[in-house]
Structures are given as structure tokens and as C-alpha cells.
């Protein structure tokens, strides 16, 4: 029975990658506890665990006496001579205690305690193993999905990907293999508390009360992400040897996962073109990354320590005329030709938001006019407004900025059928641009 217990837990230790010496110490501790429960002391007992032979010995030092008053530390001469024929009265001898002597209940409790200890060891091992891998890419299979989460199996360990760490337009099927970066590792109680705090803040703008952590076990929660900037950085390290070797350095990243990203790079070797290294011959390197990220459009930007140059490059594909920088307040005015305004701002402001995140500056795009007269501007040059809206004004005779300024917005809206709020926004834009012209 002893050997069966040792072998069963030795097999668990091998499966869970638990050190044999650690397991041996746990077994010894559990059995000493069983001894204390049965004999109310452990002073003259010892437990020897031999993991290699698969054996446990529980030893009891006892004195050979004629009349036994306590079975804790005494043994009769007759019983002692069954163990050692040469033993005499007054000698100290050692007897081996068999597990069945403790009774079925205590033995079952010991087994349960061992199982519990091993589960805790396994949890600690997983926690420490994945904590050491934070920031690294793992490959796993999707095996369960919910509305706001996904579970991924990696080496028989469950990894958790929340909705906000997924690429929105992706919908991997069960069993599909995916790659992701390990973003963090938490204990279940801490994870639940963080989730509750987020929910309460979303609902009321305030943090909620702390949960009762004792209601949750000590399971590790490994959070993985495909939306995190670190995932994009790691993909570049895999595809671009110059980044892996430290010749090309990633300075900053801005992402709208699955849609568009900007990555600023710099070469530590004048002979190496940082942007060219990242893109690869005929775009082979970056194409692999784009494909992995569900065709996320990636702009590789050459980093510059000069904020004007860096900001100008970050707004690509727009062509920038000049940049005025307020370094103290991290603010910059970016001047572009009228036909470049849409490119600079991007669809739904995407380009300028990413450029701002990449550079760390709040950016304001300023239009450089190409006047149609001495002091007027063609209304169609306000390209940040929809063409259909501007055409309504042109059809009604409001084809220049000055003509629009001469009429109340309510009247223009009534005459053209255009929304009053848009007309009002257009007038505000015209006033702002003419003010900029006057200031210059």
C-alpha cells in the first residue's frame, strides 16, 4: 500500500513537472500530520520517503519494557523480539508502522491532503512559469468561447483572452490554432476583483467594493492578447532578424487592432535601412505580419529625435508642409495643403489619432489655402466635410467661403435642406481658417 501511494503521486509529479524532492517533503509533512492526529505527538516518529524505490516507511522509536503503559514510546519484550530476536529489556528499538494501523479515515484524509497539496504546487508552478513568459508569444488551440471571452489550450494549460484583447473582426472557430502574447498572470481572486472594479466603473464612474477573496480559489489566470502593442512588436522580432539582433530598434507603436497600426523604428547601424529591413524585399516580411493580424494596415515610420520630423513622417501618407511644436505642452500644429487634409486626418480621424499616439503629441491639422480670389476660398476645398453636403451649398449658390459667411446658418439650412448643425460647423471652420490666415 505504501509503494502504491508513492508511485501514484510520483506519476502525478512527473506529469505536472513537480520536483521529486519537493514532493517527498510534502509526503513527509502529510504523514507526520497523520501521526500527530493518531498518537497526539510525533517526537519519536520519523517518515522516510524513497521516491526512486517508490516506498514510504513510518518508523517509531520505542523502549522495550515488561509492562506496556503507552503504545506511543513503549513495546513489550515479546513484540520487540518479533522484530529483533536479540533485543533485551531497556533497549531502544525501531518498529515500522503499517498504514492500516492508522485506520481507513486517517489514510483517506492523508491522500486528500496530498492531492490538495499537489494541486496547489501545480498552480504555483503554472503561475511562476507563465509569469516568466510575460511578453512572449504562445501558440494554442481555441477550445471554448463566450460573448466576451475565449479560452485557448496551451500545453494542457488554460489561457484566457478577454474581448478587449481580441482583434474585433476575427472570429476563430473551436479547434483553430492562434498566436497571442502573454499579457499578464493573476490569481483568480485578484482577477475577479479587477473585473468587478471595471464593471462598476463602467456603470457609475466609480470603483466598487472589494470582493471577498476567500470565495475564490488560488487558480492562476493567464491573460493573453492579440490586440496589445507587444504582440505586434513580438511579430516584428520574429520576422525581422535585425530587430531580434538589436540592430533595428522599435521606438513606439500605435494600434487600432485589426484596422491600422503605426510603428516607429530606428537603426543603430548607418548601413542598415530600418524601414527597409522591416518591410523586407518586395514587402515579404511585413506581409507575413499583416496576414497574421487579419490584414491590419501597418505603416512603418522612421523615428527621429527631432519632433517636427517625426510628426511629419508619422502622418504618412499625407504630405506635410510644416510643423510648429510646443514641446513643453506636447502640442503641435501641422500645416498641409487642402487636398492633403483628408489623408492627414484619415477615416474617422484614424490617421491623426495613431500619429498622435505614436509621437506623444496632440496634433492639430491646419489647412493651407489655395485662394480662388483675393480673399476667398472655394467651398469644395473644405474636404473634411462630406462632398454631398458641400454640393448642396454649391447648387444653392454658396460656392465660396465668403458667400457662406454672409448668410445666417438658419437661412442656409432652410434654403438648401442641409442640416443646421453641419452648416454651423462649416461656418466655424471657415472663421477659424480665415483667422489663421490673418495671424500669418
Keywords, separated by commas or semicolons:
4-stranded mixed β-sheet; OB fold (Dihydrolipoamide Acetyltransferase, E2P); 5-stranded mixed beta barrel; 41% helix; alpha/beta; GMP Synthetase, Chain A, domain 3; N Utilization Substance Protein A, Chain:P, domain 4; 440 residues; 5 domains
Structure description:
With 440 residues, the chain is α/β, with parallel strands linked by helices. The chain folds into five domains: 2-128, 2-Layer Sandwich (N Utilization Substance Protein A, Chain:P, domain 4); 134-226, Nucleic acid-binding proteins (OB fold (Dihydrolipoamide Acetyltransferase, E2P)); 228-298, K homology (KH) domain (GMP Synthetase, Chain A, domain 3), CATH 3.30.300.20; 304-367, K homology (KH) domain (GMP Synthetase, Chain A, domain 3, 2-Layer Sandwich); 379-439, DNA polymerase, domain 1 (Orthogonal Bundle), CATH 1.10.150.20. It is 41% helix and 25% strand. It is built from 16 helices and 15 strands. The protein has helices at residues 2-16, 20-39, 77-83, 104-131, 188-204, 229-239, 241-244, 274-279, 284-292, 307-314, 341-345, 350-359, 387-395, 401-405, 409-416, 420-439; strands at residues 45-50, 55-65, 74-76, 92-97, 137-145, 149-154, 157-162, 177-187, 220-225, 248-256, 260-267, 297-302, 320-326, 331-337, 362-368. Strands 5-6-7-9-8 form a five-stranded mixed β-barrel.
Amino acid at each position: 500500500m505504501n509503494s502504491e501511494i508513492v508511485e501514484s503521486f510520483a506519476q502525478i509529479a512527473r506529469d505536472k513537472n513537480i520536483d521529486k524532492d519537493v514532493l517527498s517533503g510534502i509526503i513527509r509533512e502529510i504523514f507526520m500530520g497523520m501521526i500527530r492526529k493518531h498518537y497526539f505527538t510525533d517526537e519519536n516518529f520519523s517518515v522516510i520517503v524513497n521516491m526512486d524505490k517508490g516506498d514510504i516507511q513510518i518508523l517509531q522509536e520505542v523502549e522495550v519494557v515488561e509492562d506496556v503503559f503507552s503504545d506511543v514510546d513503549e513495546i513489550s519484550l515479546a513484540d520487540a523480539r518479533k522484530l529483533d530476536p536479540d533485543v533485551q529489556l531497556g533497549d531502544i528499538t525501531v518498529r515500522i508502522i503499517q498504514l492500516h494501523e492508522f485506520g481507513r479515515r486517517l489514510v483517506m484524509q492523508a491522500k486528500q491532503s496530498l492531492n490538495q497539496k499537489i494541486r496547489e504546487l501545480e498552480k504555483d508552478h503554472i503561475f511562476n512559469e507563465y509569469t516568466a513568459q510575460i511578453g512572449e508569444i504562445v501558440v494554442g488551440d481555441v477550445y471554448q468561447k463566450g460573448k466576451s471571452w475565449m479560452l485557448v489550450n496551451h500545453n494542457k494549460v488554460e489561457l484566457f483572452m478577454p474581448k478587449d484583447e481580441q482583434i474585433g473582426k476575427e472570429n476563430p472557430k473551436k479547434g483553430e490554432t492562434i498566436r497571442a502574447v502573454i499579457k499578464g498572470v493573476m490569481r483568480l481572486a485578484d482577477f475577479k476583483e479587477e473585473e468587478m472594479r471595471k464593471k462598476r466603473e463602467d456603470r457609475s464612474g466609480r470603483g466598487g467594493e472589494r470582493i471577498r477573496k476567500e470565495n475564490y480559489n488560488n487558480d492562476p489566470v493567464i491573460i493573453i492578447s492579440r490586440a496589445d502593442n507587444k504582440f505586434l512588436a513580438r511579430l516584428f522580432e520574429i520576422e525581422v532578424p535585425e530587430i531580434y539582433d538589436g540592430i533595428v530598434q522599435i521606438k513606439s507603436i500605435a494600434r487600432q487592432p485589426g484596422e491600422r497600426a503605426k510603428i516607429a523604428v530606428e537603426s543603430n547601424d548607418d548601413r542598415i535601412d530600418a524601414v527597409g529591413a522591416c518591410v523586407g524585399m518586395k514587402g515579404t516580411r511585413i506581409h507575413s505580419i499583416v496576414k497574421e493580424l487579419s490584414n491590419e494596415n501597418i505603416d512603418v515610420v522612421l523615428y527621429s529625435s527631432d519632433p517636427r520630423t517625426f510628426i511629419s513622417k508619422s502622418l504618412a501618407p499625407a504630405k506635410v508642409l510644416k510643423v510648429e511644436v510646443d514641446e513643453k505642452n506636447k502640442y503641435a500644429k501641422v500645416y498641409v495643403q487642402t487636398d492633403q487634409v483628408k489623408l492627414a486626418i484619415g477615416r474617422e480621424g484614424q490617421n491623426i489619432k495613431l500619429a498622435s499616439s505614436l509621437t506623444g503629441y496632440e496634433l492639430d491639422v491646419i489647412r493651407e489655402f489655395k485662394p480662388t480670389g483675393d480673399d476667398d476660398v472655394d467651398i469644395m476645398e473644405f474636404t473634411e466635410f462630406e462632398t454631398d453636403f458641400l454640393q448642396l451649398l454649391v447648387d444653392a449658390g454658396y460656392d465660396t467661403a465668403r458667400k457662406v459667411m454672409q448668410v445666417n446658418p438658419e437661412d442656409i439650412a432652410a434654403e438648401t435642406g442641409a442640416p443646421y448643425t453641419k452648416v454651423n460647423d462649416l461656418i466655424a471652420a471657415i472663421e477659424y481658417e480665415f483667422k489663421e490666415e490673418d495671424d500669418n
